[in-house]
TrEMBL record:
The protein, known as: ROK family transcriptional regulator
Annotated Basic and acidic residues bias: 12-21
Region (Disordered): 1-24
Cross-referenced PROSITE patterns: ROK
Sequence similarity: Belongs to the ROK (NagC/XylR) family.
Pfam family name, one: ROK
Chain coiled-coil ranges: none
Gene3D superfamilies the record matches: 3.30.420.40, Winged helix-like DNA-binding domain superfamily/Winged helix DNA-binding domain
Amino acid sequence: MMSPSDDGQPGRLREGRRMRSIDGGSHASDVLALFREHGELSRTDVIELSGLSRSTVNQRLASLSAAGLLADVGGGESTGGRPSSRFAFQASRAVILTADIGASGFVVAACDLNGVPLVHAERVINVWEGPDAVLSAVDEAFGGLGHDFDVWGIAIGVPGPVEFAARRVVNPPIMTGWDRFDIAAWFAGRYAAPVSVENDANARAVAEARLHHVDNIISLKLGTGIGAGLVFNGQIIRGDKGAAGDIGHTQATMSDAEPRECRCGNLDCVEAYAGGWAIQRELEKVGIHTNTTNDIVALVASGDMEAMRRVRAAGRIIGDAIADLVSILNPRTITLSGQLADCDEVLMSGIRERVYQHTVPLATGSLQITKSTLGELAGVTGLALIAIDALFEPESVDAILEAPPALRGA
């Protein structure tokens, strides 16, 4: 939001506080970006911020208002003549439908054009049932959100490597039947809106980075499986084939343990020691039965010593796995989300111990390792933000101004 001017007039910019100029550009998306960044603006504000002519600004404001993306909210300042109108971005104009799919469940949400979840729901699923079964459950959950939304985008997060441009899962370690499945095409016949597909941990990293204003971040998703999303200098680090951050299927640093088979078919993956399913397996061996990762969290909360020991050991293995990343990438923040993150310090103490032991001091001098405060909505929020970035690219905004995307079922 813009700050009031020194004389208390909210519509005036402080002298010398020209935020940015749109170099040689007069695109509607540039003008829209000013409202998304600063909040309410008058015509005069837009002219000062953009460097565009009054006639061009008037034309852009008229087009964006006609598409429902801006609204005249009144309250402009007067300099003796007719008061200047003020405009505001209308985040409620449409929604992005998002689904954050994990190994054993998913969250769906309808998010406004600021990425804020308006309504959400959770379902238990098994990702190994395959794409048709899981995506059918997602679509059913979308329909059950209970509102006649104007849908301008679909965003799907999955627990595996994603070739982002092709919108497909590629060689996922644990997602049987999903390899190169065309998720976007599956939804194309159901919604007249663009579909994006992203790794679930990447989506969480975007939400953490944007909402907490942190550019360099590693976001760990710790649940049934283990993954990491990387956002550095404001950009997702996906790697050449979308495999960046897949720490769950890197080799665990273990010297005195019997080899453990991972669900991906390899031996001694980090996930085979520290994933929720692996902790369940080890607890079962000592006579402690659990059905879900949440059961492990409940045991830890109740003070069960065996569960606490296993979770603390898992934290050390995860800490070893990310120590090199910390030294190489030098993040400002590491955030933990997912079911196992609810084990709080029992898990986090092990992670901190190994990261600080095996990382150069310069990289950890101001490093923060914290539990995410975004809860279960971190993934759907990040997915919405990624889809919105694409939606408000110049070419997409042109298409919206010509003919807004159709409603569901069109």
